[in-house]
Amino acid sequence: MFILDTLKEGLADLDARGLRRRRRIADTPCGAHMRVDGRDIVGFASNDYLGLAGHPALAAALAEGAARYGAGSGGSHLLGGHSRAHEQLEDDLAEFAGGFVDAPRALSFSTGYMANLAALTALAGRGTTLFSDALNHASLIDGARLARADVQIYPHNDAEALAAMLEASDAAVKVIVSDTVFSMDGDIAPLAALLALAERHGAWLVVDDAHGFGVLGPQGRGALAAAALRSPHLVYICTLGKAAGVAGACVIAHETVIEWLLQRARPYIFTTASPPAVAHAVSASIKIIAGQEGDARRAHLATLIERTRAMLKATRWQPVDSHTAVQPLIIGSNEAALAVAARLDEAGLWVPAIRPPTVPVGTSRLRISLSAAHSHEDLARLEMALAQLDEVNHA
Ligand SMILES: *Cc1c(COP(=O)(O)O)cnc(C)c1O
């Protein structure tokens, strides 16, 4: 058989099952109003929750950083690539989001995917048991695999089931890992209950705040600050390409944990540091997030969230009970979800259909992602399009 044939068959199979994905090309910055594939659309697809990805001040900070530090870092953090901008960002983040632990320290990464691989491989090796929420993000699942730990999956947000599993485990090292805000459901983990279990069982609690950082808690300090939790058992990961609007990620924990990661985490050690200009721009973003402009953006986002909840309840589909910027509407089959997304697309509304393996089979959904960049007028357009679709479907 020709070498390419099996792959072609695999792709045809994806087509047949409604699982083929394709990319769209944007000609404008990420924002509520974009030009995508040559058409003007209202975008509900990004994770740019505060509308900062296209903020002129951050583009200016990126340019300033490039003028000061050049284009590339030139090396890994341990071999020449660690700049003043990275160091400053780590200090800024430890101060901003590290209030959950004494002596907080931050370690910056070029992506959240790598930060998760690093945190899990450094804390959980062979002989460790990792307790993982059933709906955790793919990067945490991959981190657990790479760590070669024994993995036990507990039912989504079920602290009681987790308690029983911890009770029954005799692993020398235990690590609990969870998203804070679940990326495809928008609901929030029972963080206080998870931390109580971690403390009772001498376990680490690793939380991935990709969708909470910048949005939740006072000044957007994140999900741990929102829940007012504090413990040396906590290891916090935030990503910087979502609400922060730039790129990268950080692990924040007690300084001893961070020093261990710096010495041992292969996804940290064996990769080129991100461009210093990126770190410089993220520092500028944190100033916006923490200040009055951040407060105003979060307040506006909160009104959009409440309005969307009411709007989705009025449809014939099943909304997920989410109080965050991620507002899913469960449609069911891949084909049905794709059809609804296609109708919205015709109305100039970009709402992605999320399908397996990102979500469980039979729960394909629209993932409406809100941003402070949206206006109430944008939401009114979505509301009208959904109402029209509903009528078509009832007829
Ligand atoms: C997006 C995301 C990541 C990965 O972060 P990147 O910076 O995009 O690599 C990790 N965890 C969760 C929950 C995410 O949603």
UniProtKB/TrEMBL annotation:
Tell me, in a sentence or two, what this protein's role is: Catalyzes the decarboxylative condensation of pimeloyl-[acyl-carrier protein] and L-alanine to produce 8-amino-7-oxononanoate (AON), [acyl-carrier protein], and carbon dioxide.
| Domain Aminotransferase class I/classII large, chain residue ranges per copy | 40-382
Per its UniProt entry, which superkingdom is the organism in?
Answer: Bacteria
Required co-factor? pyridoxal 5'-phosphate
Alphabetical keyword list: Acyltransferase, Biotin biosynthesis, Pyridoxal phosphate, Transferase
Q: How does it assemble?
A: Homodimer.
Which species is the source of this protein?
Trinickia violacea
State the InterPro entries in the record: Aminotransferase_I/II_large, AON_synthase_class-II, AONS_Archaea/Proteobacteria, AONS_Proteobacteria, PyrdxlP-dep_Trfase, PyrdxlP-dep_Trfase_major, PyrdxlP-dep_Trfase_small
Q: Which residues bind substrate?
A: 21, 137, 358
- Give the enzyme's EC designation: 2.3.1.47
Which EC class is this protein assigned?
Answer: transferase
* Catalyzed reaction equations: 6-carboxyhexanoyl-[ACP] + L-alanine + H(+) = (8S)-8-amino-7-oxononanoate + holo-[ACP] + CO2
User: In which residues is pyridoxal 5'-phosphate bound?
Assistant: 112-113, 183, 211, 239
Instruction: Name the gene for this chain.
Output: bioF
Protein's name according to its UniProt entry: 8-amino-7-oxononanoate synthase
Q: In which pathway does it act?
A: Cofactor biosynthesis; biotin biosynthesis
Q: Which NCBIfam families match?
A: bioF
Modification type N6-(pyridoxal phosphate)lysine: residues: 242
Alphabetized GO MF terms: 8-amino-7-oxononanoate synthase activity; pyridoxal phosphate binding
UniProt record, GO biological process: biotin biosynthetic process
Q: Which family does it belong to?
A: Belongs to the class-II pyridoxal-phosphate-dependent aminotransferase family. BioF subfamily.
